Amino acid sequence: MKFPLGKIKVLLTLLFVMLAVNFLAAQVLRQPSPEANGGDDIRATGHVLGAPVETMAAQPGGFAVVQGNGINYHGGPVLGGNVPIYVIWYGNWTNGPLASDSQTTVNLIDAFLGGLGGSALEGVNTTYGDNTQNVSGLLHLQSQIFDTGSQGTSLTNTRLTNIISRALTNNSLPTDPNGIYLVLTSSNVSERGFCTQFCGFHTHQTINGADIKWSFVGNVDKCPSGCEIQFPTSPNGDSGADGMANTLSHEIEEAISDPDLNAWFDANGQENGDKCNFNFGATQTAPNGSQFNQTFGGHNWMLQQNWRNSGGGACAQHL
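RESULT FIELD:
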């Protein structure tokens, strides 16, 4: 069947309009829903889903801005020096619903944070840097506080921000743009997305007038099949603390190498911890039959590997 030229032009125009409408609709569907994530666009990696990636070429210099190892530098800063860690224990950490909501868990995480800096695992982070400094592989537990429930037991990302803001504005913790703040919640507290979408995440925000880097990790005993590698037996006999330590190592590695979400991640938006998620490498057997691959702070730990930005790139337990 033949159509007049004018009718063909009309049909082509309609077809173009339909394709354009479908394309725009698809772009809308690809954007993250603020309501679906507590009013914020925070994802497990901290990066906004579907956001364009703008690259910046590395500047010449004597620092660890090295490309070609499976992860890319995007021009942002890293955290250098001996990075201070600030902890907010949120919820019921004395006698909560689970056995791991306890002072024993608090003590184990304190030992973990006290020993992680300078460890073999954190040494992998020294392969990252920006145009002014390298990551040192050093960090330390600076201070910690307890908040039994200032924002209730059902948290959104906005309420998590309020928890940190409260601690800074009332001077319970210092306002430190060079540190990392950890919000650790007990099992009686729920956070939208925890256990179903992620085990933890890190991000940054302007809080109390400063660029604050912070991370959320909940008591992973709430979802052992999704966020723990060993349950109920674990290296330190506390599956909640051991599982949280693994998630914390993931988020801390990322928060130091990509604190403002514009430094180190690959073409898929994966940061160094993401690229080795639940990849543990070689392990040893503890006396209780559990597996571990790191020893520091007087304890054995089962911690995922970190992506090494050298030698072509690989998941590694140490340099």
